[in-house]
Batch of 4 targets.
Target 1
Amino acid sequence: MAKQKKEKDKEKDKYKVVLYNESTLQEIYSFSILPLNFLAYLGVAFIVIVMTAVLVLMYSPLNGLLPRKEDGVLSKKVDAYSLRVDSVATLLQTRDEYFRSIHNIMTNNPSANNNYLDTAIASSQKVLMDNSAQQKHDSLMRSIIEIEEKATSEIINETSKREKSKTFFNPIRGMVTARFDAGSGHLGIDIAAKEGEPVLATYPGTVILATWSSETGNVIQIQHIDNFISIYKHNSALLKKVGDKVSTGEPIAIVGNSGEFTSGTHLHFELWHNGVPVDPEKYIIE
């Protein structure tokens, strides 16, 4: 009991802090403090210092110096993209060597396959090739060339079939008086027709232009599937407006002689594919 009482009395002890003048030893200022109060003051001071430091880091330029999670994610993405770029570069180099080898074989170059052979050896852990292996390699290269030629031929034939299957309706009854000639700048065909004859849509689509110009008069354009665009010029009147949906054989204009670049009643008809003018007569069914 005596020990516990002594400890309680010790907790209630006060300490006095005194400031003296160094020269005169005169007391300038003094205050009393309990040990618990002293620890509380230190705790409050520590919290204030920490909060001040946090606010400074959050709302000052020093914030940019702190590492962030986003920076780590971005760094990982950069590393991943770098690996992909390296892989693509390696694949492109191998492809170039491969095509160079094919070119050498097709041109009967005696140094054929040197570069591509080096790549093949590197990818197969530098296995030494004897005369038999060289012959097998040449045979393999010939097989690859045959497969490439066959695949290319099939692609060309398929493209040709798709183009031939894309047939357009004759836009007007009449006689072709001027044919397609891209070299001279005539990017369509001229069809002479009777005055008042209706101009028909050659294929289903959407009207994307219906206007008048001083050179070509009343003009109407239709957007079709597969990036085809049909253009009808020198009309006397337009029957459709921009945004209208049209079907094959539907009247869209009346043939005429409008515009400066005309010398009689006719239709100037153009057909464009993928932004390039093509000969309409190769697509129109009679």
Note: The longest strand covers residues 228-238.
Target 2
Amino acid sequence: MTKLFSNKLALIFMGLLIVFCHLGAARAQTAGEPIRQRQPVVKPSAEPSNIVARAGDYVITKQELEKRLMMELYPRGYDSYNEQAEPVDAETVLMKMIAEKAMVRDARKLGFLKDETFGASITRFKERRLSNLLLQKQLQPKLTVTESEIKQKMKADPKLDRARAEAMLKNTKGRRLYDQYYKQIYQKFHVKKLSNNFPKAVQIHQRLLTKPKKPRKAPFIRIYQIKEELTPEEKNIVLATFSASPQDDNGKITKITLKDWFDTLCESSPPSRPRNLNTPKGVEQLLERALRMPLLVSEAKSLGFDKDKNLLKKVREYEDRGLLSKVKSEKDKEIKEPTIDEIMIYFGKNMEAFRTGRTLKIDLIWCQDLKTARQAKAELDGGKDFESVRQKYSLEKKGKPFNTSPSGEGLFWKDLWKGDPNDIVGPVKGFYRRDIKWRIVKILEKNPGKVKGYSSDIERRVKDRLVNKQRDAILAKYGDELLKKYPYKIYTEKIKDIDPLDIP
């Protein structure tokens, strides 16, 4: 079982190497007066032209703002969509982004990174990135195959095309390179196994497996048991050590503990976990798996890859995403569950907002730009057939009628709802894949839906909406408080011309 896992791990690394191998094949700034300025304006020559705001050591670029604007525009489900909503504007969204940076800054200051579970998640992320970087740097240049090798492979198996033959050769060579390199690392760091502690690992494993402190339905060890049922002394039982030299001058000896061993076990899905952990041999085999990542990471650090700027940037971004999520989870605790009376009163005042089944059946002509859309509309107004105009102008030649609703159209719904069956609406904008494009829309059917009476389903929808309103208000209030605490500045000249509906 362990050997199979090791081979699987090696294949994963080889797959990464092959991917890496294949991957290998502004306007001038005028800094305006910052909005709500809390620090002196940075001189134009000192500030890159694509930076639209600063918040401490964070910067927000125009590209990041435009990406966020597009995200804000897309509808997120009927219950969270207001048909009367206007398009978001750049300044409002930018202020929201700056408030989120302030939340992250505050979370760092409050020590959220010290949380054991969160810290472990960050460590795993960094280690995976670091080991991948090591393999990319050290093995990718060697992962090549010659044209003659490819031809020979295809000759041996006529069913293979060139791409498949090349991939198979690289996979085989990559596995061999990885095995050789890992063996060198293993020897370099002088791994020592403390076999006298293996029987203790067997006993503790059997205890957690067969005699959990609290009843569990699953017939396997759960992650919470590692945290709650192992004593500090048991967690720190050393099963192996390694260092860069037999007697490291700096005393930098890395220990692989029983907790590391159990963490490795829990990384596997229960059906694939070893069945022989009731023996010292089984303990040793799993220990080999537990050694792999620490050894690769140590090798990467010895070569200085842990200082890689792109790696550090990715780790910082991962931390920020996690911190923001954690802050929002903490703020969710302030939400008060709406009462039945509050739910019924809100529904009574906003029944129309919970109308269901409102749909349009439409057919589309997607156009590259406004000029093209106007030409298409003119030909349709002149009596041309809709299908022939589509074939002439549309980005999508194979179109067919479909049903759409407010949840799919977002702020563009109101433009379509004005039309009646057989009307040709447009040019109007709409969501085209991940962009916004001009289109001509033929209205085929119009279903107004209906407002349902109070029911358990309506109660749930109203409750969700009231909770979301509370959440938004709590986060907005918290963000405003932090913006008074943490300095920031915005460069108005760089955002004044940003039109969310016209982002390339």
Note: The chain has 18 helices and ten strands.
Target 3
Amino acid sequence: MGEINVVDAPAQVMASEKEMLFLSDHAVSKKGNDTIFGCYARYLQAAESGADAVNGTVGALLTDSGRLAVNTIVIDEIRNADEMEFASYAPLKGIPAFLDLSKSLALGGSREQLESLGIHMTSIATPGGSGSLHIAAKCFANPGEKVLLRDRHWGPYTGFLDGCGLKMETYPLLPSQDHDDFPFFDHLSFEQAVVKLANEQHHVMTWLNDPAHNPTGLSLPSESRIELLNIFMRQAVNHSKVGFTLLIDSAYHFYAQETHGWANTIVEALQSGMMWPENLVICFALSISKSHTIYGMRNGALICLHPEEEIVSRLHDVFGVTGRQAWSASPRVSQHALCNLHADAQKSLVWRESLDEFHALLHERRESFLQACQQYHVPINPTHDGFFAWLETDRASEIVEACASKHVYLVPLDGGVRIGLCAIPTHHIERVAKVISEAIFETKGSV
């Protein structure tokens, strides 16, 4: 090897050349800022300058006064925790009572039915739903393999996969008119993609953000859920040497009309005689952020279901080691507080009543928005539940800029505009629809 002569090095080296000296190839590719937080910063700047600005950017529920909607009994339970609950580590896999609670939060009343049908389950505490996705990406696919997503999906999915050396395969969010046998689900494209991956890889994993899909607010009805499950189980049987993982990202399920629709669908499938292939695992990525309004506490869980207890036990160990290697242990105090809250029937009821009020607020905003879109001829996508609505367009940036010129701030993403109904005050809903309509016209007249 030659000796490096520092004296002879150029006085000025381009930043890209400098960073190559110490950053890995993977790290060098990481550039730019998060689109959503960038749009939120623009809103804040406008509001601070005195503009009558509307915030449709963030993915957190705000009241009509613009404050974060907080379920106060959850905060009270955290504040009342002993100092050791704040200061101590949690067990690496999570507090046992929290792990048990997470299964009930993910599965609802179907949990006992699933257990009675011979389904075993395990859970590990994670730093938010994002931690659950990280563990799934690390444990259920080999580097270089593809994970199946809808073509419209939460942007950070791509980063999670890339960070674990994975790629993505997509299928259409909505079926064409010729393939609309199942509402809001392109079953033909989905099955084709599953078969393609099964023929090319050792693992087939799909991440399905349902119900209350981010960024569209779409929720699959029961007939579409059962068809998707049928396809996945059928192809698992047809490719018995391939590992299949169906991951339900349930980040917003407490803001959906069918909160535990997926758990109910799995029960119905088993009761109808469907056999669970041994090479299939079903997972739920649970986020506590939205359901308990403690976004910054970073709590969630990955819950996995399988008929064989030995497999579930093995997964529990694998997840624990993976979490240890990534973040050690998840925050303790919020796990402790939620266990105390839900162990008390009266406190749990108060939590549920506040959650229902938040749900009703979102429903009111969505209904008002859909009516206003009809009034102003905005071709909004089908949207049912949760925090967002979606305008499909290949001119997202242009439309968002036109809206921003009138101080309505939205988020441009690949394929469309995300409209954060969760943040928009109810009294500004009609204004947002009107401004979107004007923006569409001003930037060529159609989406």
Note: The chain has two domains: 19-70+350-442, 91-330.
Target 4
Amino acid sequence: MTNKTALVTGASDGIGLEFCNILAAKGYDLILVARRKAVLNKLAKALSQQYHNINCTVISTDLSKPQGAQKLFATTVKKDLHVDLLINNAGLLQNGFFTDIDLATQENMISVNILALTSLTHLFANAMATRTGGHILNVASLAAWAPIPNQNVYAATKAYVLSFSQALHNELKVAGNGVSVTALCPGYTDTKMMDNPDQGPKLSVPSGMLQSAQEVAEQGIAACLAGKPTVVTGFANRASAILSHLFPKMILANIAGSYYRNNLN
């Protein structure tokens, strides 16, 4: 029996790494995508040794570069790899005041979080539709549900991912081509994104508010394979998403802005 194949972007650490561990345990062949080739090679070797019945393919690429998504898709075609499950996990984040953050840095964030995700979804959804269907998991964020000052561009890109994925889920369901799209919206997650000098000041969050990357990945994969349109991980996060609909956006922005400015250091 031939294994199904999953492609995971941002596979080298955090939630992406947990996606890979979970899917390998489920018997998926993996296409590991990130910028750091050496890290991906080490991960591929470890997974192949632990799960002898799977194959791992490493593709090192920078999705912020022009045509990055198209080049990645072309590489999978050249290698004759048919993707059954696409996980658009790669993402960039910046904390701080909009006018203080370098414009090129913010453009890269938009390129990865929106443009690359949209392009990969389009390319692989069409490829899946010509076969027997497939699943796409787009990683959004709880930040997608409200405007977040001092994370304004990041939150806006995730709002795009959520809206785009929910709308596309409906389109594909009506099309009846066997392809489904799910938006995954985790809250604060215990990954390097919580403390990465490259993305600006650190946001201090109580440990009790942090979910594990494994928990987030498990819930995301389960919802995706079940064909659900949206999954917000964790009870408190689901409650926050519901409450976000009860207040005007500017009230939410004022609350979030005060919290972030008091907790960025």
Note: The chain is about 45% helix and 15% strand.
